[in-house]
Amino acid sequence: MTAWTDAAACRTEDPDLFHPDGSAGLRVIEQAKAVCRRCPVADTCLQDALDSGQGGIRGGLTEAERSSLQRAIARRHLTAEAVADRVAKARNGLPAPRPRTIRQYADQYAVRVFGGHLDWDGPRWPQIDGKPYTPAQIVFAADRGRHPQGRVVANCAYSGCIKPSHVTDDAERRTPATALAA
Asked: How far is CA 86 from CA 12, 43, 79, 125, 168, in A?
């Protein structure tokens, strides 16, 4: 055992709680996560689990949640803030409320990645009021306060970037820059 495990909240709990079998329900997983939420070394435990590949519920995340987190980190180069946000949501075990407005979709699913770019972490074709949108259309509308006219195109070298300042619609591309500044 390492020194940080001496401070772990789970050291006095039944170890089986953190290694539920396939028949264990969400209630058992939530009980384990509740212990992790009050643990002073949960972040260290999570990092140890990510480094070692150990199973069970560690650092407040299940094996599946840790695997998903690792894939997202590798694929999107997430910032430390975005990783911390994902970990907090997983530890709390609460699904995020379903967004209903364009602003809510943008706030919930646009995630900051390296270099200040934004990437999309939500449904591929979200529907708002029965109409499908692309992620770029959503962040455009949320930023500009109007629906885009025509296609929304990214003018960024980072593939998939949806940062509002990196996307334009047909109307903006036809308008001279001096008219936009006015």
From this structure: 27, 13, 11, 21, 29
